[in-house]
Write a structure and sequence with these properties.
172 residues; alpha+beta; five-stranded mixed β-sheet; two-stranded antiparallel sheet; elongated
């Protein structure tokens, strides 16, 4: 993705006001969308924490889980994430200092302070997390059309082995 190349965290620390802003208007590698993803990402180095804020939108094509029709859906998000910058995980740091881990439950990720922050990869993850687990083309989607019973089907139903009658009664 052009313009969303990884940035060294040390470089980010020494930038003016330690903040970097990326404007997004591109297709995201590995993420299928009908339109380019449009929005912005802002990363701010705050000592041991990287604060990342972002807003983006695109249109994706989904398959309805009920009727199997293709439909388009707008995918939008606005988020703020705090990322711990340290060689050891935040949990280890908190346990060593005998502090409550619950106090900083919003820190969900950890990066090496001598490493990089990849805004393209981060954007891919944010979009992927917002994909619906269940997709319906509309709220009251009836599902696939039921097969129409023909006269032949009814005649065959009467000639079915009588041992299946108990199951037929359950069906009703």
């Amino acid at each position: 993705m052009q313009g969303l190349e990884p940035v060294l965290l040390r470089e980010l620390l020494f930038l003016d006001l330690s903040r970097r802003h990326w404007q997004i208007d591109c297709l995201v590698d590995g993420f299928t969308s009908l339109t380019p993803v449009r929005g912005w990402i802002e990363a701010e180095h705050c000592g041991n924490i990287l604060k990342v804020c972002s807003e983006a939108s695109t249109i994706i094509s989904l398959c309805c889980d009920r009727c199997l029709r293709q439909f388009n859906q707008e995918l939008n998000y606005r988020t703020r994430e705090l990322i711990w910058l340290g060689k050891t995980s935040l949990e280890e740091q908190m346990l060593n200092k005998e502090l409550s881990i619950d106090a900083v439950d919003s820190l969900v990720d950890c990066l090496d302070p001598n490493g990089t922050f990849d805004p393209g990869r981060w954007l891919f993850e944010q979009l992927s997390l917002r994909l619906p687990t269940v997709s319906y083309c509309r709220i009251n989607c009836p599902g696939p059309p039921l097969p129409r019973a023909s006269k032949i089907d009814k005649n065959q139903e009467n000639s079915v082995d009588p041992r299946w009658n108990v199951l037929r009664q359950l069906k009703l």
